[in-house]
Design a protein that fits this description.
heterodimer, A: 69 residues, Alpha-Beta Plaits, two-stranded antiparallel sheet, 2 helices, globular, B: 457 residues, alpha/beta, FAD/NAD(P)-binding domain, 3 domains, 6-stranded mixed sheet, 6-stranded antiparallel sheet, 9 helices, 19% helix, binds flavin-adenine dinucleotide, binds iron/sulfur cluster, Ferredoxin (chain A)
């Protein structure tokens, strides 16, 4: 699974950092950096973070795989 | 009537952020016909912003930034093949492999590419990079991991600044050469560019402003060794990143009869492309970095943006309008919004900072490195930039959308204003503007949003 954070919307509330610190990190006071590829053992935590983000900025989903349509 | 728009053949050219989000939206809006997405890169859509941040910091591999889907758009993906032409009358997209794809409606989402170093021999030296694609980022990240002596970054825009920042964070020596008086001056104006310059220097970047790089040098093995600057000095470095901005991918449209040129493909607020006579088409749509569109809040000037958020918002509007007719169509009125993280600072912008004559610091201060700067043009708020104050941005977005007076009244912010006298914004004057009525946006739902004209005076 992959994530992308809409950083135009993210306000640095850092709930995601708190819930899934291996995937989301703050860089400085409020700049968010994250790992787009979610390891399987982090999936549950990332789901929680996605639900908890107050501005719904996190999208979790499958990558496009060109062969299955 | 709408029944037939939900069916038929749609082709999207450009398999990146705008192309993917448009494909998903078409299905969400009930399009049941055939959908083909053509992309010249061999990879499925991936995200670019991490390429100059997490990837160069060595935290994330370049091949892991694939974009998640909101839903499977059930499209045929033609990846690794370039669209080479468009026949607008026969309604076909020609592909470089000789095939051609018939369409009923087309979306152009071919974005931009990195502006190359002007001398091709110098650009071909081993160790000289640009940064736009996943392959660019993989190559550059590998060099940074190998611990170069010094990296030369040419160009002090957002990408160049982020690259310099990543290098310093990894302890790599960096020289950044910028022709202008300071980094980011073209985007943010004089005052914030001084903060940017201070951040570079505080983090140990060897910042050279007011100079141009005149030549790149290599050894007999074709490896980059350094560069000559216009002030007569020389920089010894083993890696060079050319960050001179972007070129719009419009060459494939040269014979298409569209209003396509170096500044992009011009379209109306409904994302419909104009033809070369300025007549709007009804079957060719444009979205993302390749587009050029009028925005009522900025005197209907044509904007060409290179913003992630614009690619998403415009793709959604374009897709909606591809399957709806007449009054059901929506205008693309989203305010330009941008972010950048560099030197541990979170810089965000809303509106068009270059569309300004004065600026004022509304919250915080340059000294704290935490502030909200408001930009005004002829007495109304047109943009705001926050540094580590992202939560304030929504408030300024509202001021811009309602054409609020500039400077904003003291206390207008949710905390006491560090009242500052407005100073000139010090950006190149917006050209060709005339006094006119002020336009504001109304409505709360994006699809109900309209413009209202307030007579001047
Ligand atoms: C290093 C980097 C950092 C960035 N950081 C930020 C940031 O911090 N904040 C922000 O707001 N924005 C940032 N951006 C900008 C953001 O990534 C773009 O706005 C976004 O990618 C635009 O999406 P797009 O789909 O319009 O165009 P693109 O992503 O450029 O995609 C266009 C696609 O079309 C393909 N194509 C071109 N011509 C053809 C053809 N003839 N046939 C077939 N395919 C073709 C291209 O190869 C490409 O895959 C950054 C960009 C880069 C490169
Ligand atoms: S929880 Fe949401 S708003 Fe907060 S930092 Fe994470 S993505 Fe940003």
């Amino acid at each position: 699974m992959r994530i992308v954070v809409d950083l135009t919307r993210c306000q640095g509330y850092a709930q995601c950092v708190f819930l899934a610190p291996k995937v989301f990190q703050l860089h400085g006071e409020e700049g968010l950096l994250y790992s787009p590829a979610v390891p399987d053992d982090q999936l549950e935590r990332v789901r929680e973070a996605t639900a908890a983000c107050p501005v719904q900025a996190i999208l979790l989903g499958e990558e496009v795989s060109p062969d299955d349509r | 009537m709408t029944g037939d728009l939900r069916d038929g053949r749609i082709v999207i050219v450009g398999a990146s952020l705008a192309g993917l989000r448009a494909a998903e939206t078409l299905r969400e809006e009930g399009f049941t016909g055939s959908l083909t997405v053509v992309g010249d890169e061999p990879y499925p859509p991936y995200d670019r912003p991490p390429l100059s941040k997490q990837v160069l910091l060595g935290q994330v591999a370049a091949d892991t930034t694939g974009l998640p889907m909101r839903r499977n758009p059930d499209a045929e993906w033609r990846l690794g093949v370039r669209a080479s032409g468009l026949d607008g009358i026969g309604k076909r997209v020609m592909l470089a492999d000789g095939e051609s794809l018939p369409f009923d409606r087309l979306l152009i989402a071919t974005g931009t590419r990195a502006r190359p170093w002007p001398n091709p021999d110098e650009a071909a030296l081993d160790g000289v990079f640009t940064l736009r694609t996943r392959d660019d980022a993989a190559g550059l990240a590998e060099r940074l991991a190998a611990g170069p002596q010094r990296v030369l970054v040419i160009g002090g825009g957002f990408t160049g600044s982020e690259i310099a920042s990543a290098c310093r964070e990894r302890g790599i020596e960096v020289t950044l050469a910028e022709r202008g008086p300071a980094p980011l001056v073209g985007a943010l104006g004089g005052t914030l560019s001084k903060l940017a310059a201070a951040m570079h220097r505080n983090h140990g970047v060897d910042l050279r402003c007011g100079v141009t790089v005149t030549a790149l040098r290599g050894d007999s093995g074709g490896r980059f060794t350094g560069a000559e600057l216009s002030d007569g000095s020389r920089v010894e470095a083993d890696v060079c990143v050319v960050a001179l901005g972007a070129v719009r991918n419009v060459e494939w449209l040269a014979e298409a009869g569209l209003a396509a040129g170096p500044r992009g493909v011009t379209c109306d607020a409904g994302c419909r492309a104009f033809d070369m006579y300025g007549i709007v088409t009804d079957d060719v749509f444009v979205a993302g970095d390749v587009s050029r569109f009028p925005h009522p809040l900025f005197d209907y000037q044509l904007l060409s943006l290179e913003h992630w958020g614009n690619a998403v918002a415009q793709a959604e509007v374009a897709a909606h309008n591809m399957v709806n007719r007449g009054p059901l169509r929506r205008p693309h009125l989203a305010l330009p919004t941008f972010w950048s993280t560099q030197f541990g600072l979170n810089i965000k912008s809303v509106g068009v900072p270059t569309f300004s004559d004065h600026v004022a610091i509304a919250q915080g201060s340059l000294e704290e490195r935490r502030l909200a700067m408001v930009y005004g043009y002829r007495g109304r708020v047109t943009a705001a930039v926050t540094v580590d104050m992202a939560k304030s941005l929504e408030y300024y977005r509202h001021l811009i959308e309602t054409a609020a007076p500039f400077p904003p009244a003291p206390g207008a912010a949710d905390r006491p204003m560090a009242a500052e006298i407005p100073v000139p914004s010090d950006v190149p004057d917006p050209k060709g503007l005339s006094h006119g009525p002020t336009v504001a946006l109304t409505g709360h739902l994006p699809d109900r949003r309209l413009t209202v004209i307030q007579p001047s005076g």
